[in-house]
Amino acid sequence: MKKTKKNNRLTDKKRTAVAAYLFISPFFILFAIFGLFPMLFSFYLSFFRWDGLDPMTFNGLNNFRFIFSDPIFYSSIKNTFLIGLLGTLPQILVSMVIAFALNSTLIRFRNVFRTLIFLPYITSIVAVAIIFGLVFNNQPFGFANYILSLFDVGPIRWGAEYWPVKFAIATMVFWRWVGYNTIIFLAGMQSIPRELYEAAKIDGATIMQQLRLITLPMLKPIVMFVVFTATIGSLQLFTEPLIFLGRGFREEGITVVAYLWRDAFVYNTFGTASAAAIVLFVIIISLTALNLGISSLIGRTKKSKVS
Amino acid sequence: MSKFLKLTAFMVLAILLLAACNGGGNDNNDSANDSANDPETTEESFGDGEIELVFWEFGNTGYDVLIEEYVAQNPHISINLQNADMNDVHDNLFTSISAGSGAPDIAMVEEAQIERYRNAEDAFHNLFDLGAADVEDNFLDWVFQNGGNADGTFQFGLPTDIGPTVMFYRTDVFEEAGFDSSPEAVNELVNTWEDYEAVAREIYEETGKLMTDAGELVFNARRDQATQQYFNEDDELIIDDHPQIREAYDYVANLFDEGLVGDIPLWTPEWFAGMEEGTYATMLAPAWMQGQIKDNSPEEGIWSITTMPEGAGNWGGSYLTVPSESEHAEEAYNFIEWLTAPEQQLEAFLNYGLFPSSPQVYDMPEFMDYEDEYFGGIATAQVFSEAAQSVIPVYKGRLYYPVDEELKEAIDNMSAGSDPDEEWDAAVSRIERILQR
Amino acid sequence: MSTREVGEGKFSIKKFFVYVVLVGGSLVSLFPFYYMFIMATRLNREINSVPPPFTPGTNLVENFQKVTDNIDFFGAMWNSLFVSASITFGTLFLCSLAGYAFAKLEFKGKNIFFGLILVTMMVPPQLGLIPQYYIITELNWLNDFRAIIVPGLINAFGIFWMRQYINEGVPYEIVEAAKIDGCSNFRIYWNVVVPMILPAFATLGIIVFMHVWNDFLWPLVVLRDPAVHTLQVALRALNDSRQMDYGMIMSGTFWATVPLIFVFLMFNRLFIQSLSEGAVK
């Protein structure tokens, strides 16, 4: 009797594992077909010179040597981080606050607000380009420059100066993705049981206390999720600089992905583009490892504090 | 939960729709034929001949009308015309050639983009092998040569239209400054670049208005008059080895320095708005710009046209190529030879304003008599054709446009007050890094 | 008691502040969308004037007529609807299935597999264009919706999201209980897990649907024949080589975005409804 039970449990375990492999296999099969080959191809290309049309020629490590000697490549890394910090950090904080407000039962018209906040994610990129072109216009009549002129600040060339370019692009990033992250936070907050808040209210907790003591701790996995995806997203930033600066970009505003895209599709030098892609990949992986290391460290100290 | 069921139902509906789509796939030709009567749809299949030619084009060419004529005369041919955004056509062509599959039988390639394929002779049929030498004389020399390789042994495409540059000017601003505003008088007044600068100064003193909207266009105008530009025929960078490009650059630097030209980026709303506002006197631009000017500044008789100082340039225009993937190269070639013949070019000009690349057209009476009330009733076609004939053939090179882009960045920076010499050096070192890749 | 009253007073100021933030944020979010509508009602010349117009004009109908004269707008809309719906439902299914496996099932190499999924998110996708296109031509899927739908089902983000939500939202005890009742793993997924994660479905569904609907980079490359164009690809054909008619382009773009608002509202209702159902439990 006991034996059969044990056997059952074993086959159960096996069956579960088979089911699990089956459940995750579609992703890996599809990725092997459509994702792996392009990845390996890029890796291969990084050791070659190729213009996309003529036969490839072996180039050793010269592509890497070239990008590491190119000041614009370093600028692109720096820009990516600066724009990422400027655009992503405030965005996560603000979307959390908005999500908290939208989650509160005391707010009316929640659906209207939710829809409006989400609108930037679906607004056509052409319209966005025109609007931001009007706001961050180099000319004195541009909207941002007009506002600044009221404070006696001279017209700024938003499309060309070091910090203004980054600020303008970061604003676009902020604008386009706040609603998106708000929706994700909202889903996370909704999974927190209402009773917790009601209990806290009975105990006389203020909104800030509720946020600090209930929402944030319960939301930690979602916050980590958003930080993780937003970090990767900001390291792969491309669309916003492209629509704001055009295909040529500029050293002041080029990001790493913009750099490699320009190499590939404007200069048609796929070798250096692939080399830059690999460097970016390494940067992202190491940052994520660092990120995971830090957060598991924090997690451990917190747990030890609790216990 | 019921909502979820509804969503599932929606999905099932969508899948049924797919089945319907796939089923309908084979009837494609019939349905497309119905729409052939409507000249504005983006895709049309013409004729039901057994040889189908896929033709990628961009812009508003009006070729559908001509194609109908062609398939009526050649019943064994049918043509599938696919119109798309200009950049998309080029990007798709590049991807297809690069991956070795999916290119059309005929691809329209813009003049600037054809440079990209300079070293990729494998990707296209050599039109000389198909008979292009016989029609070479149909086209202006420089246009035809730009569609071939450096030593003239390989022809990528047959030219369709071109974009000869002229000087558009505002008669009201010239009059305000006390000048005679007739095309003849302005032509005489602004005969050299020195004149252009002097007139700029006078107009500024008299009216406070600028000579032109964008320094970039002045640079383009002078660049296009240079006999050597960025590269020699061995694709070596030569901008520092001959003075012409540097002179064009310094000329613009000087105009900025004196505050005589504007720095409004092209294609922005404020740039278009400037066409109507009359805050500047001239615009150095190609023939096809007249559409934008008319659209943004509808009042007749304000704008007029004359030739540019010291010659002309070309901006825009396209070639029809036959990618080597095409299995019907001969039929494709016969079609493009017909489509680019003088008679068809005249029709394309009269109906859609495509400026002909064939000098034979310039002598045709319908062309010579073409007058435009908008520009004060002058024979605009003649002004443009005069410009077209004075363009100098010049070798551009595969990386011409990336190089040009870097110089434009330098010009943009100096319009904001940076030192022109420093900007030049910075641009040259950026360009050298592009070439090293 | 007194502290509570102070708290209440502060509370309404905060409430006011919250409304200010929300209204302000909504206006900033709305403006480009509103301007898209303005452009759709105006002539090109009016759009290009300085200062630009901020009130609707009179060309709404004419602009849209120009759009339908130039492209098969409604045909393309059906194509978009089909592609977006297929990818959305396919993604929801595959991602929740994989997410369930990662969250609740034990198997060898789980962490490694999950790590691999995260790693795939880190590869910048822009360079894959030419090799991916090559695969599509080898499969003979040019001008075929499968070229969009099948690669579109790869969604590392979705798996990550679903795992996270199932981890948090589905108590282990319920899964165990179902197992003891003798349910197969798929039945547990279908009958127990799926009903509990409808809010996560709604969220992911919104994001995926909107993304696919608006994507044009990849469809542009593989859908060349206008008969299979999705809306975003078809709209690109409205661009002339030099002369952009923004009134017409924005009209097309605006009407192409409007269905998304309905889809959003639909998912949003699913989201709220599933939550209140959860609350009843």
Automatic annotation (TrEMBL), chain A:
One BP annotation, GO: transmembrane transport
Residues annotated as transmembrane: 21-47, 81-103, 115-136, 167-187, 265-294
Intracellular or extracellular location(s): Cell membrane
Source organism per UniProt: Natronobacillus azotifigens
Topology relative to the membrane: Multi-pass membrane protein
GO cellular component: plasma membrane
Sequence similarity: Belongs to the binding-protein-dependent transport system permease family.
Keyword Hydrolase appears in the UniProt entry: no
Protein name: Sugar ABC transporter permease
From TrEMBL, chain B:
Keyword Signal: yes
Key words of the record: Signal
One Pfam family matching this protein: SBP_bac_8
PROSITE patterns: PROKAR_LIPOPROTEIN
Signal peptide boundaries: 1-19
InterPro entries for this protein: Bact_solute-bd_prot1 (IPR050490), SBP (IPR006059)
Entry annotated with the keyword Signal: yes
PANTHER family reported in the protein's UniProt record: ARABINOSE-BINDING PROTEIN-RELATED (PTHR43649), SUGAR BINDING SECRETED PROTEIN (PTHR43649:SF32)
Name of the featured protein: ABC transporter substrate-binding protein
TrEMBL record, chain C:
Location of this chain's protein in the cell: Cell membrane
Family: Belongs to the binding-protein-dependent transport system permease family.
Membrane topology category: Multi-pass membrane protein
Protein origin, superkingdom: Bacteria
GO CC aspect terms: plasma membrane
One Pfam family linked to the record: BPD_transp_1
InterPro entries in the cross-refs: MetI-like, MetI-like_sf
Name of the featured protein: Carbohydrate ABC transporter permease
